[in-house]
Design the sequence.
């Protein structure tokens, strides 16, 4: 498709003090086979020379939007959505990278299927960009269509850096939830709401590389299970069937019990009991609930 006929894609990168990784991410955008894009780099008050480093990349399609540090990637992505001029929006974390045909491939399958959003397979890389095994989860599988059920159970996995979404659809579902209670799980919440609203199409090739490193946001949080449970609490009332709500309540219990077990291991007995009490409301017959309670009672 000639460049003049290509719809514009707005690419949003939130970043904070990751200039080395960020420049690799930007180069993976510049290397796209699809050329009609704008890149919005939302600098969250970086102190490592991010703004000057990005400005030194001579490409008129790149804009840096600098602000005071807020530590909230949802707020940064929403700011990018507000400023975006493209018919489509893509999200790229500042420590991740894309393969060259990513945007072109996704827009092609979206056009052929009529889907308003798409995602790709992804693999994991380490600090040096070398392939590394996934740290959790089942093997990735491409789920297309209405994927809310496998997305709830996490059989379907959507990396935020793999998404391309019609901008109007992203706005229609309410963009990203900026509340503190689901901080760093707002990407999963956003994908669940997309899946409730519209069918998707998956590209089965790993066109997105997710970097796992010690400074990764999800590597430094100790309460992600509790935040995941809050996502399930939030979406339960949105689900259209009792079956899906039951799945949602089970997933909530799984994460609350995992959080309780972590608190138990850390010697935080009162906090562990609180998490177990909450989990009991969602699935009282969950076997691991009783196992963690026993270990807590026996102090093992």
Sequence:
């Amino acid at each position: 498709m000639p460049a003049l006929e290509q719809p514009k894609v707005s690419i949003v990168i939130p970043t904070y003090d990751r200039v080395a990784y960020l420049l690799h991410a930007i180069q993976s955008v510049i290397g796209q086979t699809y050329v009609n894009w704008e890149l919005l780099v939302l600098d969250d008050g970086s102190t490592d020379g991010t703004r000057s480093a990005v400005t030194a990349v001579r490409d008129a399609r790149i804009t840096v939007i600098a602000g005071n540090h807020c530590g909230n990637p949802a707020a940064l992505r929403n700011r990018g959505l507000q400023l975006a001029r493209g018919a489509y929006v893509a999200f790229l974390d500042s420590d991740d990278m894309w393969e060259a045909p990513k945007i072109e491939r996704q827009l092609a399958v979206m056009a052929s299927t009529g889907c308003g959003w798409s995602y790709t397979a992804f693999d994991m890389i380490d600090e040096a960009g070398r392939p590394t095994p996934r740290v959790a989860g089942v093997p990735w599988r491409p789920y297309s269509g209405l994927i809310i059920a496998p997305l709830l159970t996490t059989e379907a996995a959507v990396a935020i850096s793999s998404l391309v979404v019609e901008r109007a659809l992203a706005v229609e579902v309410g963009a990203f939830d900026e509340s503190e209670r689901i901080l760093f799980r707002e990407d999963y919440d956003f994908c669940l709401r997309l899946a409730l609203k519209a069918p998707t199409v998956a590209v089965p090739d790993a066109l997105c590389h997710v970097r796992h490193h010690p400074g990764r946001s999800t590597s430094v949080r100790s309460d992600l299970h509790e935040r995941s449970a809050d996502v399930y609490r939030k979406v339960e009332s949105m689900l259209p069937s009792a079956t899906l709500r039951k799945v949602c309540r089970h997933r909530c219990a799984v994460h609350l019990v995992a959080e309780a077990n972590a608190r138990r291991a850390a010697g935080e007995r009162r906090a562990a009991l609180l998490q177990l009490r909450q989990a009991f409301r969602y699935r009282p017959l969950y076997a691991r609930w009783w196992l963690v309670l026993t270990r807590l009672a026996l102090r093992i």
User: Anything to note?
Assistant: Residues 264 and 272 are 6 Å apart (CA to CA).
